[in-house]
Amino acid sequence: MGFAFRNAWREIRNNRPFCIFYIVNLTLGLIGFISVDSFKQTLDQKVEAESKELLGADLAIRARREITSEELASVRNVLPSNTKEIEAVDFFSMAAGPTGSSRLVKIIAFDQGFPFYGKIETKLRGPITGDEKNLIHERPFVWIYPELRGQLNIDLGEELKIGETKFIVSDLIKEETGLSFQPAELAPKVFISKKFLEKTKLLTTGNTAFRNHLFKLPLDADLEKTTNAITAALLSPEVRVYSHQRVGNRAGRLLRYLSDFLGLVSLVALFLATLGIGYLYQGFVNNRIKDVAILVCLGAKKANALRTYLIQLSILGIAAAIPAIVICLISIPLLSQALSGFIPIELDASLHFPSIPLAFGVAIFGGWFLALPSLHKIRQLHPAELFQESANPSPLSSKSSLLFALPGIFAFWGLCLLQSDSSKLANIFFLSLLVSIIVLYGIGHCGLWLLDRFFRKSSLNVRLAARSLTRNKNSTITGFLTLGLGVLLLNLIPQFQYSLEQEIGSNTAESKLPKLFLFDIQEDQLEELKQTLQNSKKPLQNITPWIRGKLIEVKGEKYENFVKQDRDFQNPGEQRRNNFRNRGFNLSYRNHLLTSEEILRGRMVTMNYDANSSRPAEISIEQKYAESLDLDLGDQIKIEVSGVEIVAEVVNVRRVKWTSFQPNFFVQMQPGVLEGAPKTFIGTLHNLDPDEKNAVQDLLVQKFPTISILDVERTGRKILEIVSQMTWALQIMALLSILAGVIVLYSLAREKARRQKRDINLLKILGASFDDLRMQVRIEFGLLGLSASVLGVTFSSIVSFIFAEYIFDKVWAFQLSLPIGIIVGVVTLSILTAEWATKKVLMEKPLSILQGN
Fold first, then answer.
1. CA 288 to CA 841: how far, in whole Å?
2. Which 8-state DSSP code applies to residue 38?
3. 3-state secondary structure of 8
4. Among 185, 634, 652, 829, which is least packed, fewest CB within 10 Å?
């Protein structure tokens, strides 16, 4: 071991330029990996805090009826000790102002201590947390949304009648958290103390108020285990269990996309961190075979030579990991503080300490695994080869190469599983890369064969470039594989960035979102309302009928039996599915798709329904709702609308962009079925400044007092803030992947140019001019870069589509400019880097080839 260590240290000292470049390359890759991992952990913590604020608790139980004492006892029996509990009730009711005008409002009646997490931001008192004592629990006070001031002609200090009790308006709500079970509310909220709820006499028999029991668990409690235990303890499907992780409907889907995306970025950064160094070290070992042969001739054992290079890899790995960790330890918090005033997301990022041993492991063992095929050549080495013209042993067979690559392959698979929050994500990513490698390898061999045949009669420079590629087959295939995979990964992250930005609507300006939602529009009011708003030059848009239905049967099975089948779900995905399974639901009909809708499979519903036909009505169903009910094309459900049963068949499955704030529904019926059913209409108003919005609301209150008005600007602003945060994070992650990819591309071009130093000098001896050699280098690396980049972006698009299908809810959009830009950039970078790297060689005198290495 002493000899191996001394020899390894001597190798490092004697090959300082290579070792420095290896360390710098690996350090930059590890910085990207550690930074992404730390950022992901910080974002996960932010997502968790956000979801807790949305619910206002760690978990809750919720029912549209009184939760019995027996049910509460069964829940409390499985809760950890020292769990805190409060109750809140929410429901819709009419509220009347001092002038007698009334409005539909959502009433939140809460206990002292609400919310456990987050705060209620008011105009006069500022932020109010659940820990603070407040007069609202001592006197009949009420907090209201600001838009109710104009709608009810009410102001601070005046009385608001709720049920049979009058409450004094003591403050206005600016922002609030807790009980956010819906992405948007259908009425402005008012908050009262639960102590005064009974006096309103609104909770009579038959009232459909939601009863909520909120729980704050001890810090060491297992949320998932507790949630599953409560779910098992509750026998009635009417009582639902919500952990804070399941409640983030307002942003949960978007943040889940981002979390999965960051997991993917972490895997890409990890692969890029090892991709370049593997190629570099393979070239280094091949270049040192002659020195190893000399050592063997002098009596050294091959095992000592192998230990030498393993120790060398370990030293270089440690030397790369230490500065990477130190730089991240210092730079991540500083960068987080420096950017705090310029970015839309609040970050308190710091080094994720579990990343430290992982970084050392990747730096050391990753080098070992990647070097195995090259190091195996040392075991095949025969001293007699020293006296041959080439000191390189015969190349490994395909079977041997695969055999010695297997440990690295399985190690990377393990790291994928370790780094990803989803085993499905990790497995698809790993298999995609593995299949891409195999296909690229086959294409590379076929491409070299075709290159040799079709360029034999080309110009001299093209023939020289083609022969250089075909005669250095192993080097060319290795470079082609590495460059192709690098481009695949380089294009993958920006492609996902573009797809997710299209899905979350980051390109949707705030002005495109509706300012007001009008609902409870009666049929006999619709034409007059449209004319009134048209005269005010504020036309009513997205007019959509709203009909209430009830599920009777699903695929021929009674709804009650269908719900009981999946009562004992344990999988989080099944829990999310169960959230959609409500017997009552809203539906509509329309003869066209909105811009926020896209048919994933099936056909558009027919525009005419024949009531005399025995065929079922046709429906379009949203994809998540279809998954929750296990529905697909051709499946049938039975719906009851106002006492009339309707059999409907699924003819298409839609994807809906809910962040568009357009009136979308889970179920859309074909025209001609529901026109005679009792219904109301909803519509939206756009492009209103604050003064115009107030004027329109005053006009509607005077002429149409029964129409409910919802100011969605607050909810839209919150969604846009989340979208802005996501967009920024996506852009930063894409930039990190591009920087890591550029480093890999530079490493590949530089190493390939160094390997061809001997061939270039031989051509000079044979009379090739400087211009001829430079043109050969340009053509050779241009061909290599072009073929690898074209195939890389092609495979990247395929892989991104596969991920969209199985991971990202079919969120996929192709951006043509991105792959074109990457192809041009990679080809240009390959040519410029190769020319820069070979410039010194091209300027050398041919005599240098006779002076050894």
1. 20
2. H
3. helix
4. 634
Determine the angle formed by the axes of helices 398-419 and 355-380, rounding to 10 degrees: 180
Percent of the chain whose predicted confidence (pLDDT) is above 90: 20
Instruction: Count the helix, strand and coil residues of the chain and give each as a percent rounded to the nearest 5.
Output: 55, 15, 25
The dihedral formed by the CA atoms of 747, 750, 752 and 753, expressed in degrees to the nearest 10: 180
- Identify the residue whose tokens are 């075709």: 450
- CA nearest neighbour of 199 among 144, 157, 162, 159: 162
Cα 407 to Cα 166: distance, rounded to the nearest angstrom: 74
Rounded CA separation 753/761 (Å): 12
Query: Is the peptide bond prior to 115 cis by the omega test (within 30 degrees of 0)?
Result: yes
Q: What distance in Å separates the CA atoms of residue 142 and residue 125, rounded to the nearest whole number?
A: 13
Nearest to 270 by CA among 731, 737, 730: 737
644 DSSP β-pair partners: 641
* Biggest CA-to-CA distance, the chain: 107
Q: How confident is the model at residue 192 (pLDDT cuts 50, 70, 90)?
A: very high
Paired strand residues for 589: 669
Least confidently predicted of 223-237, 614-628, 773-787: 773-787
| Contacts of 35 by beta carbon, 8 Å cutoff, 6+ apart | 328, 332, 736
φ/ψ of residue 86, rounded to 5: -135, 165
Q: Which two tokens stand for residue 380?
A: 């095949």
Q: What is the pLDDT of residues 254-306, one digit of tens each?
A: 555 566 666 666 666 667 666 667 766 776 777 777 777 777 777 777 777 78
User: Which amino acid type is present at position 76?
Assistant: R
b/e burial code for range 585-608 (CB count within 10 A of at least 16 → b): bebbbbeeebebbeeeebeebeee
- Identify whether the C-beta of residue 177 lies closer than 8 Å to the C-beta of residue 115: yes
Q: Are 57 and 244 in contact (CB under 8 A)?
A: yes
pLDDT at 569 over 60: no
Return the structure tokens found at 803: 């991920």
398-431 exposure pattern, b = at least 16 Cβ within 10 A, e = fewer: eeebeebbeebeebbbebbeebbeeeebbebbbe
Q: Are strands 126-128 and 708-711 parallel, antiparallel or unpaired?
A: unpaired
How far is it, in rounded angstroms, from Cα 601 to Cα 453? 45
CB 662 within 8 A of CB 542: yes
Cα 148 to Cα 155: distance, rounded to the nearest angstrom:
9
The pLDDT-based confidence of 750 (bands split at 50, 70, 90) is low
**Distance from CA of residue 571 to its chain's centroid?**
20
Alpha-helical runs (H) found in 56-146: 69-78
**Euclidean distance between CA atoms 267 and 417, whole angstroms:** 9
Rama region for 85: left / alpha / beta (φ>0; ψ in -120 to 50; rest): beta
pLDDT in tens, 360-406: 888 888 778 877 777 777 776 666 655 554 444 555 555 566 676 77
Identify which of 679, 683, 653, 688 has the alpha carbon closest to the alpha carbon of residue 668.
653
Put simply, whether the predicted model's pTM sits higher than 0.85 gets the answer: no
